[in-house]
């Protein structure tokens, strides 16, 4: 009962924070980019909290238990992608002061490619949001089991909580809540690791779990092929990411944007190290052969009940920190970049529609959800290379070539993601899609494409909100 009451108060805190932000006058920049006034530290902590979500926490821990220290590359590849983005892209993304990443891309790649990219992003992130709704539903069922039946009711309540906490206050509330959530996650993960490393007896001696630590970048269970796959699919998603770009655009100054990237990179590396060490230490407490996704729950059962309650809040923070960023960013893409509407009411309406679609997917079984999650591979293979080429190009890309690049990369990426020719060829198709999309986009550079295909963005620069 006490845990349930504390859980309700914990969730109410974020709803209250979002409500207080909603009482401010909200322009488009206020709602989508926190008024472009975020400090480097708050934006950076938001990057770290949004990136180290529940799936990464559970996934990295399970992979470390199974494959060893190379599980570090799950978030390590993301840190490398984010570092490259900070060096090569941040200033270019901010240059035109767009509302979203695709606004910057449209300047160089044209509207057709930007709209195709928006469709791919919405498809991919609807699936990601559906997975987060399912995770939040399980947390609500665990915390409120005495009051709330599990299944669809818990998932619907979790979806309602995420949507409400996001849409009331917008990006400013998201950034502030992410700072709180990053602190909860840091304290919870550090406490769990310390409990595994030291026996709290009279001598407070080191635990035998430390003997499981073996620092290696590759091994028999995780070799160069797996490393390359992580670098391509995970690192690529951090190199060009609408959610992370929103943090760069929300930063008050160029310096703050680079500080945000640095704090985010440090958070990813520190988080990866702590979670991997937890997974390695778990080998001394969890039975061999345990499914990777079950390692962290099984490990918590070996701890005192306090850790079970603490990690309920840790995982709630992890899910919310990713889900709210995913929802507000995808809604901005849908309204501004796809529908061409630049008002807060439309963004909220599209966010509700996306939330309903994600909720339906989460309740419809693994078939639809798996198809939607596959769209993330389409994003990395079809959108990331074209976006990178557009942002780095010295002159505009030809819109026809840019759109063809998005389609070709997405097609090859989907073949790889769906394993249509077997797992052995999946990575090859993904790499081929990435390379083909980049080369096609670069081959289509032309000096005349802006005059022939680009719309007058000045006519669309007013903010009716």
TrEMBL record:
It is found in: Cell membrane. It comes from the Bacteria. It catalyses: L-proline(in) + Na(+)(in) = L-proline(out) + Na(+)(out). The chain crosses the membrane at residues 71-90, 116-135, 147-167, 179-198, 227-250, 262-286, 306-334, 346-363, 369-391, 400-421, 427-444. The keyword Zinc-finger does not apply. Its main location: membrane. It is a multi-pass membrane protein. Keywords: Cell membrane, Ion transport, Membrane, Sodium, Sodium transport, Symport, Transmembrane, Transmembrane helix, Transport. It holds the Pfam family SSF. Belongs to the sodium:solute symporter (SSF) (TC 2.A.21) family. PANTHER family: SODIUM/PROLINE SYMPORTER-RELATED (PTHR48086), SODIUM_PROLINE SYMPORTER (PTHR48086:SF3). This is Na+/solute symporter. It comes from Sutterella massiliensis. The lineage of its organism: Bacteria, Pseudomonadati, Pseudomonadota, Betaproteobacteria, Burkholderiales.
